[in-house]
Amino acid sequence: MIRKLNQFDHEQVMGYLAKEPSFNLFIIGDIEAFGYESDFQDLWGEFNESGQLIAVMLRLYSSYIVSSTGGLNVNGFAEIINSDEDFYELSGRDVVVEQFENNVINCLGKKTSTYFCELVTEDYVHNRHYEKAALKATLDDIERIVELRLQISTFSNKNSREGLLKMMESGISRTFYLEENGVMIAAASTTAENSQSAMIVGVCTLADYRNNGYASVCMSALCDEVLGEGKTLCLFYEDPAAGRIYKRLGFRDIGKWNIYR
Questions:
Q1: Name one Pfam family in it (predicted).
Q2: Which of 4, 53, 143, 234 could cross-link 16 (Cys pair, CB 3.0–4.6 Å)?
Q3: pLDDT digits (tens, 9 = 90+) for 192-234
């Protein structure tokens, strides 16, 4: 049975999501931020005959995330998505959302698949001593963070000052960085932070300063602080070479994440 979720389901929902806090990071964060009654957000749950929650789907505006532990009623969830004339994006763990590929969703869109890896405290390899120490960014550093990201060709253009300001003010994003002569030369950030987990994004170094381990300095400082708060860290990557950098810190692949847009 699939039905809308509400505040009365919260304990059961969070218990289900906590089983895989990394894969469910976005859903957990959006529930904590916006709850069950927002105009721009809805949640549905699938329950088995014993009343156990076995799948959750989140709608944030016109983007959907599906999470399932098995027995997913693909057609039932697809019917909900197909009723949204503004449907834009579907994402989730590959083994879950690939079930929607067989012409179930109207205009599913282009597929992007990335590696998904996770870091927990017991796996963390605290990195070696560095000559430079990473600094924690404040709201006064937002312009410099944006400027640094704009110089990285592989980054998207989703680096607006207003968006970053909102995320830092709300506590769902933080950044550690290195500077030289007043110029920010490397950084690593989190996004979508919630009470259980955080996503690492924006790991970058200016071209003239690469191959010096500067991104690793920022990553180590970030990992130290976030893991010290009892949270799990996770990230996406597409390039296996980039993946090796993260694995030196103790990150391990736990699956793949697909986005259909």
A1: GNAT_acetyltran
A2: 53
A3: 999 999 999 999 999 999 999 899 899 999 999 999 999 999 9
Query: Residue 18 and residue 43: Cα distance in Å, rounded?
Result: 16
Q: Which two structure tokens, joined as six digits, stand for 243?
A: 């993946």
Question: By the 8 A CB rule, do 14 and 88 touch?
Answer: no
Q: Where are the alpha helices (DSSP H) in the chain?
A: 10-17, 25-34, 74-82, 94-97, 142-150, 161-170, 214-228, 240-247
Nearest to 193 by CA among 161, 153, 221, 225: 225
Q: Which residues have C-beta within 8 Å of that of residue 205, sequence separation ≥ 6?
A: 185, 186, 212, 214, 215
DSSP state of 64: E
Quickly tell me which residue has 């993946």 as its tokens. Answer: 243
- List phi, psi (to 5°) of 126: -65, 125
The whole-chain average pLDDT of the chain stands at 92
Q: Which domains does the chain have, with CATH numbers?
A: 2-109 (3.40.630.30), 119-254 (3.40.630.30)
- For residue 115, name the pLDDT band (cuts at 50, 70, 90): very high
* Residue type for position 27: I
Average pLDDT over residues 125-150: 88
Q: How many CB atoms lie within 10 A of CB 71?
A: 10
Q: At what angle do helices 161-170 and 142-150 cross, to 10 degrees?
A: 130
Is 239 in a helix, a strand, or coil? coil
Q: At what angle do helices 10-17 and 25-34 cross, to 10 degrees?
A: 150
